[in-house]
Amino acid sequence: MRVTTSTAQTTDVIKDASMIKQKQMMAAHYDRLTSARENGDKVVSTFVPGNLNELLMCFDLVNNLPEVNAIQNGLRRKSGAFVMEAERAGHSEDVCTYVKSDIGMMAKGNIGPNGKELPAPDVLMLSYTGCFTFLKWFELLREQYKCETIFLQTPYMADGKITPNMIQYMVKQFKEDVIPKLERISGVKFDIDRLREYLRKSAKAEDDLVYILQSGKHVRSPIDAYFGGIYYIGPIFGAFRGTDDAIEYYQFLKNEVDQRIAAGLGPVTPDGPMGEEKYRLVVEGPPNYTNFRQFWKMFYDEGATVVASSYTKVGGTYDYGFRHDPDRPLETLAEYCLGVYTNRSLPMRIDMLVDYINEYQADGLLINSIKSCNSFSAGQLLMMREVEKRTGKPAAFIETDLVDPRYFSAANVKNRLESYFQMIEQKRSGKGVAA
Amino acid sequence: MSSPTTTEIVARCQELYEDLHFTAARKWKEAEPGRKVIGYMPVYVPREIIHAAGMLPLGIVGGGDNLEVIHGDAYYQSYICRIPRSTIELGVTGRLDFVDGMLFPSICDVIRNLSGMWKMLFPEVYSKYFDVPQTYEDEIGGTFYTNEMAEFRKDLEEIGGRKITDEGLHKSIEVYNENRRIIRELYDQRAKTPWKVPAAEVYLVVRAGLVLPVEEHNELVLQYIEAAAKEDRPIRDNSRVVLTGLFCEQPPLNLIKSLELSGCYVVDDDLLLITRWLIGDVPTDGDPLHNLSQAFLHHSESTAAKYEPDLEEKGQFLVRAVKRTGAEGVIFASTSFCDPALLDRPMLQNVLKDAGIPFIAFKYAENSGQMQPIREQAGTFADSIKLWSAA
Ligand code: SF4
Ligand code: SF4
């Protein structure tokens, strides 16, 4: 087991103010979660896409995100054992490993990243947004915890537009089902002005997030919008949207990005500042977490920076203009859920990737196809060909998994990446794209 | 004129099943100018609306084990089920070139994403992701669904260039009510006398309804019911099982046959669920879309593609199916890489454990060739059920 190496991943990097702030935020959050029982706090489990943090905060609920726990377990190299534990308990080897990592973690005592036991949720907020598996995942958790489950359906944006029927459906669910249930479970009366206040704060942090993500447009990008991006989206996709902490975090980060731009610096990597920017990539799909650092190194060693990614839009497509709007509190939550990346139709996803390649002056598209994830993966081969056709830029396809180390083949991935970089070189020198 | 025998009826259905060029549907379309065909995938769409538009609803359930998938594999990674790739194969090889529209029900993310792929690959074809509610309150999910159906109705009116009247919808609902009644009768007949009504025959007869006009199918199923009742087939010492998990990708016909050969009578299943999705008759007066919506919300089958709001109810449909049909066990046959079926399976198995109902589980793909392991597993299961009940 290489469990202990995980701490090295976060300790030996050069720490900026934003990193320190984020670490503190996460630690405080997990402490609040693991001491929820002592403090009399109620806990809600929910998902990142379609995350209703502002609404949940109105009921003083502490937010637990099983997806984030799975990521933490992946980064700490614990997820592999959890996945196997779930498979031993009868779960199929074929299904999403996030679910199995979560179930395995429960079976092994539900220990959070701070080494303490995570409390059983008081309520499962099943916000069914952009992924069918969510629905089964929380049915499985409900079976385990026997706790109340609140369901919110986000219709799929299949035709590239949000219709009035979709918004009405969601707002009705909020008004007639979600909010009354949250009131009953929490014992806290819903205060729409409190919600507005949180939404106002969200929008502020969202502005800064967009500024940061779009800094990737600078040639010599100051950020890596995939590997680094994972950290940047953490607070706003997790339990901090709508808080002062998030506002402060994104201000720190924005200042750091500005400084790097002014100094002509590239992204910060786990091995320090990145060297020359040789390749600018757009990446589609989630990363692999079990070998996260090794995976990232394969990029920065070659001078490849990810300048834009779709994964950093799973918790909201803010760069397309969406902001939480305090003047339309429930409608805005509906629009937020409807717009998340995995709730967008395939043609919309293709448009986005094409825009990114053009606007971020990228050399091409890399798809990291995740074995676990039908929501992302089904259709990616067509997406790749279409993006290639429309941009004239080369694309490449690799296959890994989120949190199952059995599906990360370092040698394969490295080979693929190396030949992809060669392809980009050939394209640049006008020799055409190798088949 | 003498009525056809089961052999004759089944032979016709087998021919329809094997015909991956959908000749019957093509002929229907050619018979009159202006006719339109609307394809749909599993698990459920309200075919009544298509019928009321004067169009033919055509069930597309992949390519089965007879289709050589050459292009489809270039669209999907190895860890995604078969049905989308063989459906794409049908599309890109021109086998669906007569289809004027395609519906992709909200069953899972694979079919959901396929709806977008279809738009890209066949931009000239009407293609719709058919969203259904996963919340079941009249004012919430019901209203959403009624509005979605109204939009679909409008789309079909545009495609067909004619109005879909309430009266027309009532008539279509009636003919589909009849179809559901007849198919349920067939299922009841099989549960009562499974030796007279082999599962593979039931499958073929029901499956014919995916490509034939419903009126013709009603007649065909009735003929089969009558002919099967007259059959004198030997009773075997088989165990009675409910087959579950096959609501989307189709098993090879051989798989169904193998189960019976290995000692299991299939007395209920979730194959081609659309033919039995709505339970009981849908009223044929009042607002037809409201009626269809009510039936969906309150009188429809359970399956992995549907959210079950009540923990106590989870999986009970299976226990009820076992009791209703006098089954002695359950076989979980799930499509490889099928998240809905495979994530649901452990929960359903826990319910069965609590109810003391034995079960086995295996996976299949539409092109699975090797039946020996499944035959052995099912055979052992059938034997153990007998030993168990004798003990
Ligand atoms: S299928 Fe994909 S989006 Fe859904 S829970 Fe799994 S990893 Fe997340
Ligand atoms: S077999 Fe399962 S995963 Fe595949 S399309 Fe059907 S429901 Fe979806």
Write up what this structure looks like.
The complex is a heterodimer of chains A (435) and B (391). With 435 residues, chain A is of the alpha/beta class. Helix content of chain A is 51%, strand content 11%. Chain A contains 18 helices and ten strands. Chain A has a four-stranded parallel sheet, sandwiched between helices. Chain A starts with a helix and ends in a 7-residue tail after the last helix. With 391 residues, chain B is α/β, with parallel strands linked by helices. In chain B, helix 1 packs across helix 8 (199-207) and helix 7 runs parallel beside helix 9. Chain B is globular and about 65 Å long. Chain B starts with 5 loop residues before the first helix and ends with a helix. Classes of the chains: A alpha/beta (435), B alpha/beta (391). The complex binds iron/sulfur cluster (2 copies). One iron/sulfur cluster is lined by residues 81, 83-84, 107-108, 110-111, 248-249, 335, 338-341 of chain B.
Question: Could you give a quick summary of the protein structure above?
Answer:
The complex is a heterodimer of chains A (435) and B (391). With 435 residues, chain A is of the alpha/beta class.
Feature tags:
heterodimer; A: 435 residues; alpha/beta; Rossmann fold; 2 domains; 51% helix; disordered N terminus; B: 391 residues; 4-stranded parallel β-sheet; 49% helix; binds iron/sulfur cluster
Query: What is the CA-atom radius of gyration of chain A, in angstroms?
Result: 21 Å
Low-confidence stretches of chain B: none
Computed structural class of chain B: alpha/beta
Backbone structural class of chain A: alpha/beta
- The average pLDDT score of chain B comes to 97
**Largest sheet entry of chain A:** 4 strands, parallel
Largest sheet of chain B: 4 strands, parallel
User: Tell me, what is the CATH class of the largest domain in chain B?
Assistant: Alpha Beta
Strand arrangement, largest sheet of chain A?
Answer: 2-1-3-4
Per the CATH scheme, the topology name of the largest domain in chain B is Rossmann fold
Put simply, the count of helices of chain B is 14
Number of domains of chain B: 2
Radius of gyration of chain B: 20 Å
Largest interface summary: A-B, 54 and 57 residues
Tally of separate helices of chain A: 18
The amount of beta strand of chain B, in percent, is 5-15%
Percent of residues in helices of chain B comes to 40-55%
